[in-house]
Structures are given as structure tokens and as C-alpha cells.
Design goal:
The structure holds two protein chains of two kinds. Chain A contains no helices and nine strands. Chain B is built from ten helices and no strands. Chain B is globular, with a radius of gyration of 18 Å. Chain B starts with a helix and ends with a helix. The chains are: A mainly beta, B mainly alpha. Chains A and B meet through loops of A and α1, α4, α8 and α10 of B.
Chain lengths: 138, 228
């Protein structure tokens, strides 16, 4: 890490979501829920106020009772805790604001994990899906 | 410590060993390796420069945290800080190159003079601090280098911006800064020990590494300016 900083990624951390082209859609880990993930404004840039949006549809119906958090991490570089609490803003739609800090070593790949909180605080959040995407520098 | 302060403190503590030691360690190594006089026995009295450096760094974090907390917007405040941070990155790089050249025994040679010529303005600005014989020079050094652009501290500044006010923002980043102290103190003390005990190839290799990292800091600062 001393020399490479945050610019080397294992192949598993390659982007699977072209966030600048529009929403990314993926099946949740439960197999029954479809997750739509979007960031605006586009192109998505670091160090800027961003709006994160998640849509949940289960068996063709919007999911309106989820408590969701986005956990943002940079593969290969510890960037601290960056979690965004999402609030329901429409039928099956959850949104929240946040910032992706710039990595001075050049890293631009981010991974977002969508976590569903349980009503029982003693239970760990459940990971629904994750997306890996690249951002532009401001 | 309140729960709100525990998060940034733990981020600093864990990130200090996993992130800061790798990214800022070479910077600490630069003054730690170049600091002790040859033959001087390492000991607790040598902790002074490191404590003062960390105090300076934490003071800057607290200052930035206060601004973030007051403004309530990380993006708006960071935008005005970015130019200064990249200048500090170039300054830190020039400082590391000069210290590294001193460690490998090339100070006063043509290479050192060329570096001094190319980065004359920033080094002249920093020379009262770098060339001072006083141990208290490490406090202003920490103050300035606390502005270095760093992804981990950016994340903490985002938290400070959302903390709700000036005092809350300052406390948030202060807790983070305190958390990072053990790692950087450990790096500084270890490098000071190496610097005072070894004058052979290990010491010179450390100097070469400091030069390489200094050049990287300079390149990063210039590239960041270009992308603004």
C-alpha cells in the first residue's frame, strides 16, 4: 500500500455498474427483489453533493417498508466510515444525499453496499446487493 | 467519550495503522530520520518533535472541522480548501526530497541545488521552519502538513459538516486526529530509532524511499492542480 496507494484493484473490484449512463439494475441476494441504483447529477464526480437513489421491487410490487442504508467503500483503500441513510421518497423509491471524497492517490472506483436494517436493533443489517462503479474527479 | 466522538476516534485509530502509517508515514520518516544527531541515543526525550508535530496536525484538523461544522456543507468548504491542500502537497514533497537528499548524503550536490532551484518559492517559504534548530519548529510543520489532501480525512470532514455546528465539527475532527496519533507516533519513534542507530545502507535506503515518496507528493499536487 505504501507505494501503490489506492490505484490497484483485484479483478473482482472492477466496475459492474456504468453509473454515468443511468440507473444500474441488479437482483438482490434474496433472489426475489429487484434493486435499482442511481446517482445524480451525472456525470458522477467526487467532492460534490450527490443524490443517491434506490428502487426496490419485489414480485412486481414496490417495497415501501424498508429501512435502508448505503455503505460506501473504496476497494483497496480504507476511506473511513461513509454511510448514507435513505428515506422513502416515493413508491418503492428511497433517496439520500452524500459525498464521495476524492482519493489523492488516484483511486476512482467505489463500491456501494445496500443494507436493509432490521426493526430489531440487536440484529445485524442484511446486505441486499452491491454495485461497483467509477466516478470522475471534479 | 460520547458515542458521537467514538466513531471518528476509532476511525482515526484503525485508519492510523492501516492508512496514515502508509500514506503519511514517509513524511514523518523524513523528519524523524533526518532529525536525530548521529550517535544520539534514542529515548523518550526524542518524543518531543513527534508530539509537537501531531499537535500541529490535530490543530489543523480541528480548524477544518470547525469550518465544516459551521458551513454545514463539505462540498462547498472543501472546494475553497482544495487549492491550498495541493500547494501543501507540493511543499510536503519538496520538504521530503530535501530531507531525503540530506539522509542519503547528497545535500549540497548538484541534484540538491537543482531541486532547491525548481521548488525555490515553496522551500523559501518553509525554510524558517525547516532550517530552525528549535524543537518547536515541529508544531508549525504539523500545522501546515495537516492540510495535506487525504481521502480518510475527507471522510471525517464530511462527518464534521453533518455534525450540526462549529463546536461539534471541531470536536469531531479533534477526536479523529487524536485517534491517528498512536500510529504516527509509532512510525516516528521507530524511524527516529533507526535514524539514531543505523548509518549504513538501511538508513540511506530509507532516505531514497523518502525522496521517491516526496516526488510522488509533488506529482500528485501538480496533477491535482491540473485537474481543478
Amino acid at each position: 500500500m505504501l507505494i501503490t496507494g489506492c490505484t490497484d484493484y483485484p479483478p473482482s473490484n472492477a466496475p459492474d455498474c456504468s453509473i454515468d449512463r443511468g440507473p444500474c439494475i441488479k437482483a438482490a441476494r434474496d433472489g426475489a427483489t429487484e434493486v435499482t441504483f442511481e446517482i445524480s447529477p451525472r456525470p458522477v464526480r467526487s467532492m460534490a453533493e450527490l443524490r443517491f437513489s434506490v428502487g426496490l421491487v419485489r414480485d412486481g410490487w414496490p417495497v415501501d417498508d424498508a429501512a435502508l442504508v448505503l455503505d460506501l467503500t473504496m476497494p483497496g483503500m480504507y476511506m473511513g466510515d461513509n454511510r448514507i441513510r435513505l428515506l422513502r421518497s416515493g413508491s418503492g423509491i428511497y433517496t439520500g444525499g452524500g459525498v464521495l471524497p476524492r482519493c489523492p492517490s488516484g483511486g476512482r472506483i467505489w463500491r456501494v453496499e445496500l443494507l436493509r436494517l432490521s426493526t430489531d436493533p440487536a440484529l445485524e443489517p442484511v446486505s441486499l446487493a452491491d454495485f461497483t462503479f467509477e466516478v470522475r474527479e471534479r | 467519550m460520547t458515542e458521537a466522538m467514538a466513531l471518528p476516534f476509532m476511525t482515526g485509530l484503525l485508519g492510523g495503522f492501516g492508512h496514515c502509517a502508509g500514506m503519511c508515514g514517509p513524511l514523518v520518516s523524513a523528519y524523524a530520520l533526518g532529525g536525530p544527531c548521529p550517535g544520539e541515543r534514542p529515548g523518550i526525550k526524542n518524543i518531543g518533535p513527534h508530539v509537537l508535530y501531531n499537535l500541529g496536525r490535530i490543530t489543523t484538523y480541528a480548524f477544518i472541522g470547525a469550518i465544516m461544522g459551521l458551513s454545514g456543507s463539505f462540498a462547498a468548504s472543501a472546494g475553497t480548501l482544495e487549492g491550498l491542500q495541493y500547494a501543501v502537497s507540493i511543499l510536503a514533497g519538496a520538504f521530503m526530497v530535501v530531507m531525503g537528499l540530506g539522509i542519503v548524503g547528497l545535500m549540497g550536490t548538484g541534484i540538491a541545488k537543482a531541486v532547491e532551484r525548481q521548488s525555490g518559492l515553496v522551500l523559501r517559504a518553509a525554510s524558517p521552519v525547516i532550517e530552525s534548530g528549535s524543537v518547536f519548529k515541529y508544531y508549525p510543520l504539523g500545522l501546515v502538513l495537516g492540510f495535506l489532501p487525504c481521502g480518510l480525512s475527507y471522510s471525517i470532514f464530511i462527518g464534521a459538516a453533518a455534525s450540526g455546528g462549529l463546536v461539534e465539527g471541531m470536536a469531531y475532527t479533534l477526536a479523529f486526529g487524536l485517534g491517528t496519533v498512536p500510529a504516527l507516533l509509532a512510525v516516528g519513534m521507530a524511524m527516529g530509532y533507526i535514524g539514531s542507530r543505523t548509518r549504513g545502507w538501511i538508513y540511506r535506503a530509507g532516505g531514497a524511499l523518502v525522496i521517491a515518496m516526496g516526488l510522488r507528493f509533488i506529482a500528485r499536487g501538480i496533477a491535482s492542480y491540473a485537474s481543478m
